[in-house]
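Private note to self, pasted from the team thread so I don't lose it. Backbone tokens:
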């Protein structure tokens, strides 16, 4: 059996011992004996606010490392506080990508079921709910609102299956175009919506999220609206502009199912993805069953022994959170070939890309875990790191979905070295060393972790001086660790130039000429 067992001990008033069953990326995880997904509480971490922490979680419904996730929305459009446990109303059910509250989100749209008179404004359509009427699992979310509308969601990697059960009254589904620009079209005969939304914090890349939504019930009325002044255009089939959305009316008291999928590549690709991921499922229950199987196989990679049921719920809820990032940013064409629209050079490329990860937050634990549990995916991620560097000139440090440059350190080399030492050899180590050498001897245009912050002082003094540089001690330690990783990789592959450079970079650099722009020559 190609598995390794490791003992770990945690203390919570008593000793809780578990065994970690690490499955290779080639072998399939054995089917778990019970429904492990039932242990996961996706509401964990949602009882938070800005006074308590800058970070928060939301009740994510998604597949492991899926390109899109889904969540109920209690916060207003554009708020980083997407869902807070103490809020009393829900105003939508979102396609989401948010990593934390301070990053906000991108490529968002939401659905909201409305009963009775049509209301579109997010503050007006917001409806009361109770947590006792809420089911929050990774494979399935369900809530019955105070107006007796029930919403259910089950995910695929790039889409979702939704079901709305209305009371016996006028029944609407409102699609909100969120904070940026959108262009949407209603196809009554086909019972579908197509178009795109484009929104993110900085709108640097103006990334378009092409969507296709297919309903199983006919529309009895429809129209467009916009969420700046909340004007409604009855009977209009398409619209474009800031915050443009659509609404659909169904038979009173209907039960309505919707299949949706999104693409960063094209409207056609959204349709290809919808058919590939959701075409075989007749109803939401089928999609849910498939999602449950995937999550149970995924969570079954780690077998927990001992402890209480509460301990197991805590463990699997945390394991679930460690199974969301980095997010897939690639899609499959009609032939099943992976390709992606790059947020770095805005071109189409074959292969794999990943996003939504700040390496300072994840290089210590998340990625070493990925290397052990998912070596095939991790090998693809190593390729994606170097592909991103080719496309924008810099190794990623905080991708969201392009480079943000946040936090500190140049930790891509840590990931590359760790992967190589663990036997993941999907990339050229010489290319990795060249990329990191460039990172370590130049300053990039985005943030403190894009290139080497405090470059002259680091090499002239051996550290970043305070108070000239914030977090000077921490940054010095991060750079030193990253240089150690560069040294280890160079040593492992026998590259004496990079080995010597990263062993004693201060010895290498004094003879170099500092050009007019203040950067050391490469």
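Design output:
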């Amino acid at each position: 059996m190609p598995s390794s067992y490791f003992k770990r001990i945690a203390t919570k008033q008593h000793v809780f011992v578990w065994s970690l069953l690490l499955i290779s990326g080639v072998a399939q995880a054995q089917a778990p004996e019970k429904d492990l997904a039932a242990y996961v509480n996706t509401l964990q971490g949602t009882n938070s606010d800005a006074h308590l922490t800058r970070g928060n979680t939301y009740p994510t419904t998604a597949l492991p490392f899926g390109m899109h996730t889904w969540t109920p929305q209690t916060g207003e459009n554009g708020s980083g506080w997407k869902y807070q446990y103490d809020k009393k109303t829900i105003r939508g059910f979102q396609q989401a990508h948010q990593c934390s509250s301070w990053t906000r989100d991108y490529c968002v749209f939401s659905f909201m079921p409305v009963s009775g008179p049509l209301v579109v404004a997010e503050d007006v359509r917001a409806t009361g709910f109770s947590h006792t009427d809420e089911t929050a699992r990774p494979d399935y979310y369900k809530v019955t609102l105070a107006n007796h509308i029930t919403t259910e969601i089950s995910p695929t990697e790039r889409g979702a299956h939704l079901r709305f059960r209305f009371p016996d009254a006028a029944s609407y589904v409102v699609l909100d175009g969120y904070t940026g620009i959108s262009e949407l079209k209603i196809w009554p005969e086909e019972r579908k919506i197509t178009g795109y939304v484009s929104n993110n914090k900085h709108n640097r890349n103006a990334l378009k999220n092409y969507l296709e939504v297919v309903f199983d019930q006919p529309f009895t009325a429809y129209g467009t609206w916009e969420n700046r002044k909340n004007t409604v255009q009855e009977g209009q089939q398409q619209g474009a502009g800031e915050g443009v959305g659509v609404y659909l009316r169904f038979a009173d008291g209907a039960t309505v199912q919707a299949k949706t999928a999104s693409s960063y590549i094209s409207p056609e690709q959204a349709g290809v993805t919808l058919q590939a991921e959701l075409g075989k499922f007749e109803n939401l229950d089928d999609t849910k069953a498939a999602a449950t199987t995937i999550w149970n196989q995924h969570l079954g990679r780690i077998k927990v022994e001992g402890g209480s049921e509460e301990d197991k719920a805590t463990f699997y809820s945390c394991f679930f959170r460690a199974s969301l990032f980095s997010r897939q940013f690639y899609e499959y064409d009609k032939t099943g070939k992976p390709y992606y629209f790059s947020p770095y050079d805005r071109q189409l490329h074959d292969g794999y890309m990943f996003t939504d990860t700040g390496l300072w937050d994840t290089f210590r634990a998340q990625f070493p875990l990925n290397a052990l549990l998912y070596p095939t995916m991790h090998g693809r991620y190593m390729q994606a790191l170097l592909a991103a560097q080719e496309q924008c000139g810099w190794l990623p440090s905080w991708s969201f979905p392009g480079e943000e440059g946040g936090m500190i350190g140049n930790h891509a080399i840590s990931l590359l070295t760790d992967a190589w030492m663990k036997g993941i050899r999907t990339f050229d180590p010489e290319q990795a060393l060249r990329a990191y050498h460039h990172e370590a001897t130049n300053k990039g245009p985005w943030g403190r972790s894009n290139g080497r912050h405090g470059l002259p002082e680091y090499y002239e003094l051996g550290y970043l001086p305070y108070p000239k540089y914030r977090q000077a001690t921490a940054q010095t330690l991060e750079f030193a660790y990253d240089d150690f990783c560069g040294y280890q990789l160079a040593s492992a592959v026998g590259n004496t130039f990079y080995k010597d450079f990263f062993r004693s970079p201060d010895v290498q650099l004094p003879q170099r000429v500092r050009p007019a722009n203040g950067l050391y020559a490469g």
